[in-house]
Amino acid sequence: MNPAKQHFTGRRMLLCMLPLFVLLLWIVALSSLATAGGTATAGTPARISVPIPPSAKGADVVMLEVSIAVTRGAPAGRHLGAAVRIRPAGGSAIEAGRVSLAGGESSYQFNVARALGRASGGSAEVEVSVIDRAGGSPPQGAVLSIGRARIVTR
Questions:
Q1: Hey, where are the domains in the chain?
Q2: What is the per-residue pLDDT across 33-50, written as a single tens digit (0 to 9) for each?
Q3: Angstrom distances, CA of residue 130 to CA of 23, 34, 45, 92, 133
Q4: Between the ranges 40-44, 57-61, 96-100, where is the mean pLDDT highest?
Q5: Angle (CA) 53 59 62, round 5°
Q6: Architecture in CATH of 39-153
Q7: Cystine design at 133: which of 47, 81, 122, 153 (Cβ 3.0–4.6 Å)?
């Protein structure tokens, strides 16, 4: 009698599992790209982390560049806007500015030299909140998202 032939060795199983592992990593990477900036609603701001370049410490101009997309507009008669705040690591949030939004995706720049102080390296958190530019409570049903955000120096 021959001993039973082992059809599924450990090496063969690992080799078969490799494509499944690659597929899993690809799915996780794509899902994290889709929600990189998150979404802001009337009750919850969108947040994204941005690296602070080492050159920010000695730079004269430190700008936050952020693109904000209107995913779902405000009800008629409401003036949709966004409040943009930046929070350096270990610091408190400081409002960088407010913008009015008409629809689609637009890019904005804010001078954040004072907000970051002389911080260099590390990261900061950018927060975008839905506001009503005419005053009052944030418009219900409006949804914003952060397309991209980065800090640049000049």
A1: 39-153
A2: 444 557 888 889 999 999
A3: 37, 20, 7, 20, 9
A4: 96-100
A5: 65
A6: Sandwich (2.60)
A7: 81
